[in-house]
Design brief:
The protein contains 1 helix and 8 strands, in the order H-E-E-E-E-E-E-E-E. A hairpin with a 4-residue loop joins strand 5 (98-106) and strand 6. The chain has one helix at 2-26; strands at 31-34, 40-47, 50-58, 87-95, 98-106, 111-121, 124-130, 137-144.
């Protein structure tokens, strides 16, 4: 009887450590990231099982003395919203080392793309945006804010 209890305890411990390691891996993208041009920082957070991101910093937050707005948005009603705090990543789910099935909004052209993210290292995040099929798209690298 004691052997079974010990084996059961060991199994529970191993499974617990494995799930903790998985959670640490999937949460590695949390934090602040510079966009490719280093003109903005995106803060990636987790809401329930979904990873989301919003603009947390802009190199030029007040062009012409006014807050930067979403002026390229195809919806005229959205063009007055400020870029600071603007959600640009949503719907990302972690699976097998990739955060996928999400969307990224590009305020430079006002378009939304499907996207997936992959960590190349602790400080480099590969972001792929695409329309339709993932092999037809663009890949850029974001760097972690130190």
């Amino acid at each position: 009887m004691k052997k079974r209890q010990i084996v059961s305890l060991l199994v529970v411990l191993v499974l617990g450590l494995a799930s903790q390691a998985h959670a640490q891996t999937e949460n590695k993208i949390l934090g602040l990231w510079y966009n490719t041009e280093k003109t903005a920082q995106v803060e990636i957070t987790k809401k329930e099982s979904e990873y989301i991101g919003k603009i947390a910093w802009l190199k030029d937050p007040n062009p012409d003395g006014k807050p930067a707005t979403d002026r390229q948005n195809s919806d005229p009603k959205m063009r007055q919203r400020t870029l600071m705090g603007l959600p640009i990543l949503k719907g990302l789910k972690y699976s097998g080392g990739v955060w996928k099935d999400g969307e990224i909004y590009d305020p430079k052209n006002g378009k939304t793309y499907s996207c997936e993210l992959k960590l190349k290292s602790d400080s480099v995040l590969e972001m792929r945006g695409y329309l339709g099929f993932s092999f037809v798209g663009r890949t850029v690298e974001w760097t972690r804010v130190k």
